[in-house]
Design a protein that fits this description.
It contains nine helices and ten strands. The radius of gyration is 19 Å and the shape is globular. It has a single domain, classed as Zn peptidases (Aminopeptidase), CATH 3.40.630. With about 325 residues, the protein is of the alpha/beta class. Helix 3 packs across helix 9 and helix 7 packs antiparallel against helix 9.
Amino acid sequence: MPETHTYPIGTPGQPWGAAERDQWRARQVRQRSYADDVLTAIEALRGRFDVELYGDVVYADAQHPAERFPLRAIRSRNWQPGLPSVLVSGGVHGYETSGVHGALRFVDTQAERFAGRANLLVVPCVSPWAYERFQRWNFDAIDPNRSFKEGSSAQESLALMRLVAQHQGQYGQFTAHIDLHETTDTDESEYRPAVAARDGKVFEPGSIPDGFYLVDDTENPQPAFQQAIIEAVGRVTHIAPPDEKNEIIGSPMTEPGVIRYEFKAWGLCASVTGARYTTTTEVYPDSPRATPEQCIAAQVAAVCAAVEFVCGAQ
């Protein structure tokens, strides 16, 4: 029998309505600044890269004044037709800190060495409201990383989908997309119980893998691409081992440090381009064997390896 777990909002077995979402929203506390941490860092890169506003996220209700978050992307200067194009996204889950700062660090310290070899579009923080509140969901208690699909009700997901469509319409298909994430201890202590409560389901405990791993696409597996990233990241931080079932986070390990999900069916961000090479990184920041700096460095190493692989595959 699954362990009984009572989440502090809602009635067990009943999906949330508007009142429960209001209760959940009232519990969310702003703890850091998207403007200070992300927009300021992006502005500092404007002299070396193109910076574009690709939308705004606006949230308000009867209890909360309107909040507006400008969404910005960083683009290679002098985009060149014929070169492989790579999308790097972070902060789809705002609380996954190293994804945001790993994307920014990559642009600042590594992106210029790919000039003339690859075109880069980097979106460091897809979900700024959640970034400020260390939250997985957006203001409406929606997971953006299940919302990259037609008819999406997540503003963040729709904005990125529009950006990708515009870029592909102007410049052509992306070759690769690497989406930067973390798996944290709060996934098990907070977010999975919250999902179960929100959806009126029973919470079934799982486990958190100790180390870095990747999620490949079941419908378009690219094992050589994944392993090139795993090899690079393994020089920075440890790779998650499988459990006794040869699984990572409930999914069979297909290659060392790699599992697979159905990207498009799940509405995952890594499905948004339809690129040949796609992956989702998962850093484990709560490991006693990893520091916050290592987590950021692991994301940078993953992006560099992904871009190097694509450049070599052309």
